[in-house]
């Protein structure tokens, strides 16, 4: 059996207090669709072969995680407009200290916002430059 030459993320579970609400929220902001429930999961396909499988955590609190999404520059303003339309504050920084502003890191634009389960979501138009 030969192994693939590259490793790709296929899916990950995203814990949520309400799996449907969190999946619908992210899909609405990013302009995506929520898939049909699959076992205990509600999927959001990101379009690059990766699926976020929202899983409801009922017996303990959700530990907030960070999820960053590389988005087309021409859709960035629309996503910011969607956040504003639903009353979600966005920030220029990951610590949420600069509300209502975006950043211009690495020559692109970016913003952070919280999802219904407390995850720190990020949209950015240019990937980070790594050393």
Topology, please?
Elements: E1 11-16, H1 19-30, E2 41-45, E3 51-56, E4 66-70, H2 73-85, E5 90-91, E6 110-114, E7 120-124
Protein name: VOC family protein
Domain VOC: 8-126
InterPro entries: Glyas_Bleomycin-R_OHBP_Dase (IPR029068), Glyas_Fos-R_dOase_dom (IPR004360), VOC_core (IPR037523)
Low-confidence stretches are none
Termini gap: 35 Å
Distinct helical segment count:
2
Order of helices and strands, N to C? EHEEEHEEE
The level-1 CATH class: Alpha Beta
Number-wise, the strands total 7
Tally of separate domains = 1
Please tell me the overall pLDDT. 95
From the alpha-carbon coordinates, what is the Rg to the nearest angstrom? 15 Å
CATH H-level superfamily title: 2,3-Dihydroxybiphenyl 1,2-Dioxygenase, domain 1
- Sheet having the most strands: 4 strands, mixed
Instruction: Specify the helix fraction band.
Output: 10-25%
Summarize the structure in short.
With 131 residues, the protein is of the alpha/beta class. Helix content is 19%, strand content 26%. This is VOC family protein.
Textual characterization of the structure:
The protein has 131 residues and is an alpha/beta fold. The chain has one domain (11-124): 2,3-Dihydroxybiphenyl 1,2-Dioxygenase, domain 1, CATH 3.10.180.10. It has helices spanning 19-30, 73-85; strands at residues 11-16, 41-45, 51-56, 66-70, 90-91, 110-114, 120-124. It has a 4-stranded mixed sheet, with helices on one face. A hairpin with a 5-residue loop joins strand 6 (110-114) and strand 7 (120-124). It is globular, with a radius of gyration of 15 Å. The protein starts with 10 loop residues before the first strand and ends in a 7-residue tail after the last strand. The model has no long low-confidence stretch (mean pLDDT 95).
